[in-house]
Each structure stands twice: as C-alpha cells, then as structure tokens.
Amino acid sequence: MPRHSASRALAAALGSITVAVLASGCTAAANTNDAGPTPSTTASTTAPASPAASSGTDADLCGAFGDVLTIITTAENGRVTERMPPQEYNGWLRLATRVLDRVPLSGEGQVTEAIRTLQELAPPIPLGTDGPSEIGSQEWWLATSPLYEACDAAGFPVSAESYIGG
C-alpha cells in the first residue's frame, strides 16, 4: 500500500473513531483535562510567535503536517488502548496545536491554504495553560481532506507514523 494511502486510511479510521465516540454520547470533554488545571511551572506561559513570515515549500508543509498527524494518532492510539490517561492525552493534543501553529506557511497555494484552515480550527494552546482544542475533532479531521488532496497534487503525499509503548 503506498504511504499516502496508508496515511489516508489511518486518518479515515481515526476520523471514524472520533465520529463513533461523538455519536455514542461522549462530549467534547475528551479534549479537556479531566484532572483539573495544570499548574504553570514554566518561566513563560505563552507560545513563541507563529513563523508566519517564514516560508516553506509544499514538501516542507506536507512533511510538517505529517509530524502533527504522528502526535495526534499516537496519542489517540494510547487513549483508545487505555495506555495513556486523559491528562497525558490532552497534553499531547496541546503540543500538536503548537506544532501545527509552527508549520512555516509559504503565503500562497492550496497546501498553504489547507494548513491555514486547520490552524484556524485549532489555534495553539500556550505552554502552561489548559483548554479544549478542536485538533482531532470530527470537524478538524474532515478539514484535513483538502490538505491530503493538495499535498498529493503537489507530489508530496502526507505520511505519518504511529506508535505506542507497552
């Protein structure tokens, strides 16, 4: 199976899991920290500014998005298999919002626009703070389709890996 087909299959499966969880009556609380507020022990509670001024090629953008997918799918696998408690899962999702925010947009093109849409759906959650995110939500997964298509058309299919310890 080509890498991009496997990535699409994984994204579709995770999207289906999300849909199934939402349909079963679970709320968006799955993306909140059930353990309460996270104490701030860092010197800074704000994330670094987004590198909007820097530019990346379509290959850079598609590759960087694969890293975001690796974080999300690995966290989701850990949550679903009950190897990861909700607090850790939510921490990984918060990290994914910051990594997504740091994808270096080129300012133009279908790949850039697709990533910009995903960034708008899931803005970065700064270090030392807590809050829900739309990253990994059904709406967010549905919005990834244009990015997969744009990366395929540009010749840089999105790929990710997923792993979980045990």
Please summarize what this structure is.
By secondary structure, the chain is mainly alpha-helical.
Characterise this structure:
This protein is 53% helix and 0% strand. The two termini are 26 Å apart. α2 runs antiparallel to α3 and α4 packs antiparallel against α6. The protein is globular, with a radius of gyration of 16 Å. The protein is an all-alpha fold. The longest helix is centred in the middle third of the chain and has 23 residues.
Keywords summarizing the entry:
166 residues, mainly alpha, 53% helix, 0% strand, disordered N terminus
Give the structural class: mainly alpha
Unreliable runs, pLDDT <50, ≥5 residues?
A: 1-54
Q: What percentage of the residues does DSSP assign to strands (E)?
A: under 5%
Number of strands: 0
The major sheet is characterized as:
none
Radius of gyration: 16 Å
Overall pLDDT score: 74
Helix-strand topology string? HHHHHH
Considering DSSP H and I runs of 4 or more, what fraction of the residues is helical?
40-55%
Q: What shape does the CA trace take?
A: globular
List the helices and strands and how they pair.
Blueprint: H1 3-23, H2 58-80, H3 86-101, H4 110-121, H5 138-143, H6 145-154
